[in-house]
Specification:
The complex is a heterodimer of chains A (211) and B (547). Chain A is α+β, with helices and mostly antiparallel strands and 211 residues long. Chain A is built from seven helices and seven strands. Helices cover 55% and strands 11% of the residues of chain A. Chain A has a four-stranded antiparallel β-sheet. Classes of the chains: A alpha+beta (211), B alpha+beta (547). Strand 3 of chain A pairs antiparallel with strand 1 of chain B, so a sheet runs across the interface.
Chain lengths: 211, 547
């Protein structure tokens, strides 16, 4: 690290997240500081960022299991009821010739949430250990996690669309399964988790190291 | 630590104020993972609690069975699912691992049966059509046992009797074969379908077929120990004095076959038969209604002459009663006499005789008694004889009949089975006689005879010529003399005729003389009478003349 980089915290400044007013902490306890202009609580880093991220991540990990075990889609036709999990859908696509589509679904619905959760875990652990290992890479990882999160909703869109469209009485009907709820929750929770993570923590140990 | 830029004065910035928003020690965000954990835990516990037992079912083929897809349905309610399909260690069967629902634990008992429901077209109709589209599923019949079991052998076909179709099973044995019968073929009682064939298996020795049939409730009570079963496949045609009679159970049975049963008409009322009672399956109704031939006695007979027309099944006739039948005809070489023999093995059913036996006599089928009986018959002249049963087809049958003039013979007990003496058949006798005549004719010196006859004819011819000459000679020399003799004779006769004519003087004289003689004779008679009455008149004269 080189260069006379100064963070706002080091300069003794706070920025209000709501109205962007730069504020002095001015002896007020950090937990109680509020913006003098708009009254938003002020904090140097996102409030409880690590804890919140952990909590949401853990919740996502827990729900990831039912999301993959429980069926996301119940197809009822005159020939019987069939319940499909995400993985069985992928297998079906693969065996029925739609290998590219199978890869896409596999990537979007299984790999992405898994990678997201792994990436968040790595980030959290590294931040908590005040690791100084290659912050730009970790920052890039974080940006990737934030960006890719929305694509995981692909499956949910398919299920909701199908459930809305295929309602042909007793001939055929599709209902979303509990797996879809769990899966949607996983995606949303990981998104929240990524949002609540404060990437500035990645850089904090650098200051200490340099200092 | 780097210096802040000169243009920046921290003190110029507005100071933060103390906010009123309360901040919790334990962030609310932890509720989310707790809720997630609760949901996950609930699902996990539910899954563990709902996880039923697993069992393995083996099949010959896994056709239609898909791991993770094929379901087990009981009355169309899913009670489990096939999780895995593999091949058994000996690679002869497939093993389906089935996970049952917890509520289906009671299905895993010893006599529960599983089978694959596939589309089937059989004698019993079409079944499992729905599986054409939905794929096969496993059917299950809940067992009654309480002994748990987790490894089953799947049936290859749906069972005929399930727990929800109560009936009674009986065992039939067919010595002939089963014709067009198959599993699922119907059982008829008075033309009503009352049961099904559940299974059949070839006897271990291959000499018959064993069938398991099921008669459904409430019809099983019509099966009594007396009941006779027969194969009702096809059409039964009989020709008798009443004309042609066609008998069939149903149109379906003509094509698909079936079994019918009925009590014989003379059967006494009996209690329903127990389950698994054994019955014989007759070929047709007539055979079924015959007296059962429980006991069989085997004999052998040696016939001289051709056995053409004698086939297995030909009856043995004893004074008009059919008491047995021909079983087989063999070929035997006798090394001592260097002759080929044709032993005819026969079966005799002594029961048929017993029924007509006098009361009090020991049953003839008891050992010893039967032999004695047979010895007696043979001693009386009873012999087996081949007879023609049908002139058109040349079918033969064996008659056991009495031949008082037959040469003496005894029952040969040295062979096994016992040999019954025979006598040549009527046809054989006739043939023998004709053959003898033919042989005699053959022995005649026909050619010499013809030459002799020719010579005789010539001689006869010359004889006739000489006779002719003789006649001519007689005609020429003898006849004129004969004529003169005849003329003389004629003349003599004419004279005689004239003499004897009524108006001839000779005859008139003769008549007068005769009347004179008559008068004289009368006078003499009167005199004789007078002398007889009055002898004294000779001296004193006639009495009447006295005054």
């Amino acid at each position: 690290m080189s260069g006379p980089w100064l963070t706002a915290a080091e300069a003794g400044c706070l920025v209000c997240h709501t109205c962007d007013l730069v504020v002095r902490p001015a002896g007020v306890a950090a937990e109680e500081a509020c913006c003098p202009r708009c009254g938003t609580p002020l904090h140097l880093r996102k409030e409880n960022s690590i804890v919140r991220t952990w909590a949401l991540l853990i919740a996502a990990v827990i729900l990831y299991i039912p999301a993959n075990v429980l069926p996301v889609m119940n197809t009822t036709t005159i020939f019987g009821t069939e319940a499909d999990t995400i993985l069985s859908g992928v297998v079906y696509l693969w065996t029925s010739g739609g290998q590219p589509l199978a890869l896409l679904v596999f990537f979007a619905s299984i790999m992405v949430p898994l990678l997201k959760m792994l990436a968040l875990t790595v980030l959290l652990v590294s931040v908590q250990r005040r690791s100084t290992w290659d912050p730009p890479q970790r920052a890039r990882l974080y940006r990737l996690v934030e960006f890719v999160g929305r694509w995981s909703m692909l499956d949910i869109y398919v299920v909701t669309l199908m459930a809305a469209l295929v309602q042909i009485g007793s001939l055929a009907s599709i209902r979303p399964g509990y797996g879809a709820v769990a899966f949607g929750s996983v995606v949303v929770l990981t998104m929240f988790s990524a949002m609540s993570f404060d990437p500035r923590f990645i850089w904090d140990p650098m200051r200490a190291k340099n200092g | 630590m780097a210096e802040p830029p000169k243009s920046f004065q921290a003190d110029d910035l507005p100071a933060a104020v103390i906010g009123s928003s309360g901040r919790r020690k334990l962030p609310l965000v932890w509720i989310i993972p707790i809720v997630a954990a609760l949901i996950g835990g609930y699902l996990a516990v539910k899954a563990i609690l709902e996880k039923g037992p697993t069992a393995t079912i083996t099949f010959v083929t896994a056709e239609g069975i898909e791991a993770g897809k094929t379901k087990i349905l009981y009355r169309n309610v899913e009670i489990g699912q096939v999780n895995d399909v593999g091949v058994s260690e000996d690679e002869k069967r497939v093993i389906a691992t089935v996970e049952f629902k917890k509520s289906a634990t009671k299905f895993l008992v010893k006599d529960t049966r599983f089978w694959v429901v596939r589309p089937r077209v059989g004698a019993g109709g079409v079944s499992g059509l729905g599986t054409l589209f939905s794929g096969a599923y496993l059917g299950v019949d809940l067992g009654k046992s309480t002994e748990p079991q987790h490894a089953f052998t799947g049936l290859e076909a749906p069972p005929i009797v399930t727990a929800d179709s109560p009936g009674r099973q009986f065992i039939l044995h067919s010595a002939e074969g089963i014709g067009s019968l198959e599993v699922g073929s119907p059982i008829y009682f008075r033309h009503i379908e009352v049961g099904r064939i559940a299974a059949f298996v070839l006897d271990p020795d291959g000499n018959g077929v064993k069938l398991w049939v099921v008669v459904f409730s409430p019809y099983e009570r019509y099966v009594t120990p007396n009941t006779r079963f027969w194969n009702a496949s096809g059409v039964d045609m009989t020709v008798n004095a009443d004309g042609l009679r066609v008998h069939t159970e149903s149109v379906a049975s003509i094509i698909a076959g079936g079994i019918a049963f009925e009590d014989p008409p003379d059967a006494t009322q009996a209690a329903p038969a127990e389950a698994d009672t054994k019955f014989d399956l007759a070929v047709d109704r007539v055979q079924a209604m015959k007296r059962p031939d429980n006991q069989v006695m085997n004999f052998v007979m040696y016939f001289d002459g051709s056995l053409r027309g004698l086939s297995p099944g030909a009856p043995i006739d004893f004074n008009g009663l059919t008491v047995g039948e021909v079983k087989q005809i063999n070929l035997e070489y006798d090394p001592t006499t260097k002759r080929l023999l044709f032993p005819v093995s026969v079966e005799v059913y002594p029961d048929r005789l017993r029924a007509r036996q006098r009361k009090g006599a020991p049953p003839i089928e008891t050992p010893g008694v039967a032999g004695h009986f047979l010895d007696n018959l043979v001693a009386q002249g009873y012999r087996a004889q081949l007879r023609s049963g049908n002139i058109l087809t040349g079918q033969l049958y064996i008659a056991f009949d009495r031949f008082p003039n037959a040469p003496k013979a005894t029952v040969n007990r040295s062979t096994t089975p016992v040999e019954i003496p025979t006598t040549p058949g009527t046809l054989q006798e006739l043939t023998g006689a004709v053959t003898q005549i033919a042989a005699k004719i053959e022995k005649l010196p026909l050619e010499e005879l013809t030459t002799d006859a020719h010579q005789a004819m010539q001689t006869l011819n010359s004889t006739l010529a000489s006779v002719d000459q003789l006649v001519k000679k007689i005609d020429g020399e003898v006849t004129p003399e004969v004529q003169t003799v005849l003329q003389d004779a004629h003349r003599t006769l004419e004279t005689a005729g004239r003499t004897l004519q009524s108006d001839s003087p000779t005859l008139i004289d003769l008549r007068q003389a005769m009347s004179e003689l008559t008068r004289a004779a009368e006078a003499v008679r009167v005199l004789a009478e007078m002398l007889d009455k009055q002898p004294e008149s000779l001296i004193r004269g006639k009495k009447g003349d006295q005054p």
